[in-house]
Design goal:
By secondary structure, this protein is mainly α. It is built from 5 helices and 2 strands.
Length: 145
């Protein structure tokens, strides 16, 4: 006797898989749609090969996750800009202190502008270097075996 199967976008699922998914997805979210909006949703789900419920869940979660936290790249760029600004400020401060002078407001603003202008390419360069280093370490690790 074969197990009953249920169709979904991801293929056939056995009854235990369906039950497990139902337990994990036990909360209900409802909304009101016009007949035209409902037709749009049903057509989109059909084009996707999903049930209406599966399609709506996927779309809702995808959109919610976009705003869950800032992307890594953005945070990394800000860290790099802060690092550049601090380094430039400390070096410049030491230089002007040696001459018994002070940094001007314009000097500091130029450093901020420079750091912000460089952050994206500096972050990309550092990520590329990290990937190259990781690849080299992986290759050398595989060669040593």
């Amino acid at each position: 006797m074969s197990k009953p199967e249920y169709q979904s976008k991801n293929g056939a699922m056995s009854l235990p898989e369906v039950v497990a998914r139902t337990v994990l997805s036990s909360k209900t979210l409802s909304t009101r749609l016009s007949p035209e909006e409902l037709e749009e949703v049903e057509q989109a789900a059909q084009r996707d090969g999903s049930t209406r419920s599966e399609w709506m869940r996927a779309v809702l979660l995808r959109e919610a996750r976009k705003f869950a936290e800032p992307p890594f790249e953005l945070l990394f760029e800000e860290v790099i800009a802060t690092q550049n600004l601090l380094t430039n400020y400390l070096v410049a401060s030491a230089q002007v202190a040696a001459e018994n002078k002070q940094l001007s407001r314009e000097d500091v603003l130029q450093m901020i502008q420079f750091s912000n202008g460089q952050k994206k390419q500096d972050a990309q360069r550092m990520v590329e270097e990290w990937h190259a280093r990781s690849a080299a370490e992986s290759a050398s690790g595989k060669g040593a075996r």
